[in-house]
Amino acid sequence: MRPALPSLNALRAFEAAGRLGSFKEAAAELHVTHGAISQQVRLLEAWLGASLFERHNRRVVLTPAARAYLAEIGPLFDRLAQATARYGLSETVSRTLTVNAPATFTLRWLVPRLERFRVLHPDVEVRIETSNEPVESLKDTHDIVIRGGPDTFYGYAMRPFLEEERLPVCSPALLRRLPLRTPEDMQRHTLLHTSSLPRVWPDWLAQVDLPALTPAAVLTFDHFYLTLQAAVDGMGIAMGPTALVADDLAAGRLVAPFDGPRLPSRSYCTYVADDKADDDVIVLFRSWLEREGEAFASEHEG
């Protein structure tokens, strides 16, 4: 019988971190999070019964024993890559990843960024389906479910990746016709509602001490993406989630007539069944989403 071996993922994390001298750089090379590298190294240390790194500020230094271990296993990874190339096989098996997400989020945030994932991982085919079905009902048909949160579902691992707030938005052409200098001016405008979000306008008007304001008209849509499109087309004012209207604001298709107040909103989270949470491709996509969320937050600070 062959002797027992530690996890290949743990060995890859150790080899990359040891070679690069940094958990952060190892995470970037392997397209996972810093925490995933730390976890895999801890698993390997537990399996070996020995410490592998000494932590020094932002760098990590191999222990003498770990340095010798790395010298042995490093060439093995090189040989594995060479053997894979020699026999015409890719290092990763082509995979299909099924993702279920809300339609408006998919259209306005996920799809414009998805090409970046495809370029990084051309061997992974991502299939997107949109719905608002309960998370638990999608366990057998989807690898990752994106919903608001954070919520807790038995048998699921949840990770947030994108935060947002809500504020009034409208088209520049509408403002030219009917200027909005103060919230009271909204009594001359049409307020755009979504039937599934009945509280957003009353909550915002309460924040500006205008709970009894009566607008000139009200239009209600059954899908949120229709509400936002109506705002782009100059039909009225919508309560826009910052993450989903950022591209329209940047392009000038929408404007935000007031800086505040902003209503807090639920975060976007990934929900994955516990028995799939360690799947390499699922970890890859979740980590990519988290990096995209961090980049979005950094770009739109303040």
UniProtKB/TrEMBL annotation:
The keyword Metal-binding does not apply. It comes from Caballeronia jiangsuensis. InterPro entries: LysR-type_TF_proteobact-type, LysR_HTH_N, LysR_subst-bd, WH-like_DNA-bd_sf, WH_DNA-bd_sf. Pfam families: HTH_1, LysR_substrate. This is Transcriptional regulator GcvA. Signal peptide: none annotated. The keyword ATP-binding does not apply. It comes from the Bacteria. Belongs to the LysR transcriptional regulatory family. Keywords: DNA-binding, Transcription, Transcription regulation. Residues 6-63 form the HTH lysR-type domain.
